[in-house]
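Repro:
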Amino acid sequence: MTETKARRRAPGMSPERRREMILQAALPLVAEYGAAVTTAQIARAAAIGEATIFRVFADKEELLSACVARALDPAHMLAEIAAIPLDQPLADRLREAAEAMRAYLERMGSVIGALHASGARRGRPDAGDGGGGGPVSREESFARTREAVAELFEPDRDTLRRPPEKLAAIFLGMLFVRPAARDGEAETVALDDIIEVFLNGAVA
């Protein structure tokens, strides 16, 4: 009987992989419940015992800090932008990049907003909490995003009126000042309209 159980036992998981698995399970729960989420809920979502959480996180506060760091980390968004095929039309490239950025901002906003609404202690996460080498400043995040978007312009460099880096900064500026939709209303400025005016101008 003991030998059978041993054969069926899952192979050992590294602390890094276990940490990642817990974070993946915790993020949507933190976005929903904020600081009120329990480690028991997270353990059930990750299909592990609650004690397993505390093998890689000292306490719940450290786990919540890691969730904040992960929500702020733009690495996933940047990878999505880098994966956009460069052989498709520029408008399509920009649309995919904008959607990746929108999803990132929504994820970040849902986690930070839920924690704030539930009265969690404010403050920036400690270095390393998110497992990605430390938190990324807002300036660094914007710079890396601008570089990634600039790469999308490179195939059309010879036909551009401005360098890719400058066009990327202008495009991001237009996206980030787009007014948000109010309750019950359609989006005030559609993404396709922004891309159309950006590429073709406002004057016919």
